[in-house]
Amino acid sequence: MTYSVAVSGASGYAGGEILRILAAHPDVEIRTVTAHSNAGQPLIQHQPHLRSLAHLTLAETSPEVLAGHDIVFLALPHGQSGQYTDALGDTPLVIDAGADHRLESVADWDRFYGGDFHEPWVYGVPELPVAGAKQRDRLVGASRIAAPGCNASTVSLSLAPGVAAGVIDPSDIVTVLAVGPSGAGKSLKTNLLAAEILGTANPYAVGGSHRHIPEIRQALAAARASAAAPDSTADEGIRVSFTPVLVPMSRGILATSTAPIAPGATDDEIRGAWESAYGDETFVQLLPAGQFPRTADVLGANTALMGLAIDRAANRVVVVTAVDNLVKGTAGAAVQSMNIALGLAEGTALTVNGVAP
Predict the structure, then answer these.
(1) Strand, coil or helix: what is 284?
(2) DSSP assignment of 97-164
């Protein structure tokens, strides 16, 4: 069976990456691409690297245009997806790459985003440990999927095995991330001009204001929930100090996350938690002891590479994780989740191989 697909926000970075991956997918037909201010223009004018899709023209984003497809991807700014998802009730599968359907807490939404709150959808991070299982189990047969925030899923994947196994203390998590500007979208912003970011590193959203913090806490609470009490996902006691730093690389996230070692946890138990969680995974890989990833190694790949260190002098576990924010952080996770929901081979159209140099 071939599934018809519409992609909104197709002129942006996330929408373009979804299209790049789907262009190589044997089970889908990209039938419609939409935009707002760029509607009526050729897709190739805004995504000149997508040569196989040069025949497509950007249509206006509207419920009427998006309806009638088997699958709709929404790659819109935060707060804009809900107006369309409410009108797509007959669409078999909708995947939102924005934040509108990620959070379970109304209070968190009001504090970090504001505007209308929309119901949470199944979270699109298949490898995430949850309640003694994996998030992929919840994605099987799903009709509504919330693709993750790129920073949030990187940190969550980094620490969830330790939280699930009880070998780290989630009450004192500290994470610092080097991130590329493509994660901020394609809209023109002065602080993202080349003259402003080349040759410098700039922290932003310092002091607990970044929108991905509640998403991380929610994911780690799900990891902490036991199989006996899978609905016990309250995030009390999970505290995250989160500091992103904008660096001059167009793609990529390098997240260094640390947490205290739980009393009595041995080195073998600590490393074993991550090996057990990801040893059989294709797209999340723990490197051998003493090795740490580079963002260059995951560019273009749907891969999260992580290295783990046990700092006994500081009594902390240190996890360094590299992802391509547009692939494993967004579009790749969305397509991977789509594959699972539809019963297709999970890795269809996705690669573990990066692009070098």
Answers:
(1) strand
(2) -SSTTT-S-HHHHHHHT-S------EE--TT-EETTEETHHHHTT-SEEEPPPHHHHHHHHHHHHHHH
Distance of CA 337 to the CA centre of its chain: 11
CB neighbour burial string for 150-167, b if at least 16 within 10 angstroms, e if fewer: bbbbbbbbbbbbbbbbeb
SS3 217: helix
- For 221-231, the pLDDT digits (tens) are 999 986 545 55
- State percent of the chain over pLDDT 70: 98
State the Cα–Cα distance between residues 124 and 97, nearest whole angstrom. 9
Q: DSSP class of residue 261?
A: B
Q: d(Cα 29, Cα 96) in Å, to the nearest integer?
A: 19
Catalytic residue among 58, 150, 240, 270: 150
Q: What percent of the chain has pLDDT over 90?
A: 90
Largest Cα span, the chain: 62
Name the token pair of 292. Answer: 């740490």
> CB neighbours (10 Å) of residue 260?
17
Task: Tell me which residue of 279, 243, 229, 239 sits closest to 259, measured CA to CA.
Answer: 239
CA atoms of 264 and 161, how far apart (whole Å): 17
Question: Tokens in use for 92?
Answer: 């078999």
Give the span between the Cα atoms of 219 and 90, in whole angstroms: 29
Return the residue matching tokens 């997918």: 25
How does the average pLDDT of the chain come out, rounded?
Answer: 95
C-alpha 176 chain-centroid distance: 17
Tell me whether strands 144-146 and 93-96 are parallel, antiparallel or unpaired. parallel
H/E stretch holding 311: strand 304-311
347 tagged catalytic: no
CA angle at 331 for the pair 329 and 334, rounded to the nearest 5°: 95
Q: Is 216 helix (H, G, I), strand (E, B) or coil?
A: helix
